[in-house]
């Protein structure tokens, strides 16, 4: 095989049909991952639910796919709610997150029967109490807790981030007041506790510490509550990343939760998780066309027709990616190169250093594992148009988001008569 094939379609066919830069999603890969989550996240002792953290990649077509697997949804803004509603996502499976939800967003949620709210702080619970009364809606509240555990890929810190902008510490006065308010409210009901300890986690130890913390709080309650462990399952961006197979990781989380509950003679209503990146990340590939090639005294650049506008992660987090010349897979990687984007910014580098075959202008470059937080964090900087998104499966491709046209750049602009 000398050419990259995604979902049964060659990269060159995709580039010809949809142009580049292009976000390509392997639908079967996403389906397989969702199946692994479905199979791995089950317990004989309590109910379980997987919520897709849609901030990783949200389009109507994606939400439909997620719904096929019976997953719920984590949304974090009015805009994400709007998209979920347009996708006809079951409203009782949507959980509304965020540390600073506006009154308008909360009203929008309540009016549309989105009644699971993950509340971040006391002021939010106070506002929810007022709004739930005003709109006569019973709201299930999960409190976002800061359990003091922070995962950094392979290690974790226990007393990390007490000043995080997210959540409350269970012991804090603010959290206890929030709990009291929920207890006294006739519209709010405590559904349980939520925590999210980080992203791109490769070792389950931090989650086990989180489970210990969360279950320890449950002893203060007579009724069984639900626990949401958040997302953060790591994926493979480059050869250096060694994620744990998803079913294996989930099995460990389930078993540990069962043991922690058993030890304390507790039951829970439901255990939830919220993976985002792990569902879509590795399924996504970005196709670029190489334009100019340039040598400087110490470097060789391959310039591509996109960059930080379609993938801000290298500039923002120094994120690393693997790539290939999509039509020269079997050629020797003799060139040490930097892949840079076309935006007017020195930091617009897609891959700092990699080895590739000798390229010529017009060659296709495939950057792997771009499915999470690429499209969703894309921008129109430099008036770049957002690339198209396609799903491929079984040798067929379908357009999910059309490429922006220049006219899309002016949408919303108000022009005044110069006279
Ligand atoms: N749940 C909560 C409450 C979260 O804050 C997040 C991610 C997730 C779930 C999903 O985490 P995941 O499974 O995708 O790691 N833009 C960054 C990632 C920000 C993550 C924010 N929260 C990136 O590109 O790496």
Q: Would you mind describing this structure in some detail?
A:
By secondary structure, this protein is α/β, with parallel strands linked by helices. It is built from 12 helices and 21 strands. It has helices at 11-18, 27-40, 60-68, 78-86, 103-111, 122-134, 173-184, 205-218, 246-263, 277-280, 313-317, 406-409; strands at 5-6, 9-10, 22-26, 47-53, 72-75, 94-96, 116-119, 139-144, 150-152, 155-157, 188-194, 225-228, 268-273, 284-295, 300-304, 323-325, 335-340, 349-356, 364-368, 388-393, 396-401. Strands 3, 14, 15, 16, 17, 18, 19, 20 and 21 form a 9-stranded mixed beta sheet that branches. An 8-stranded parallel barrel has the order 4-5-6-7-8-11-12-13, surrounded by 5 helices. A two-stranded antiparallel sheet has the order 1-2. Helix 2 packs parallel to helix 9 (246-263), helix 5 packs across helix 6 (122-134) and helix 6 (122-134) packs parallel to helix 7 (173-184). It is globular. It starts with a strand and ends in a 10-residue tail after the last helix. The mean pLDDT is 96. The structure holds ligand LLP. Ligand LLP binds at residues 53, 56, 74, 97, 196, 199, 230-233, 274-278, 313, 317, 372-373.
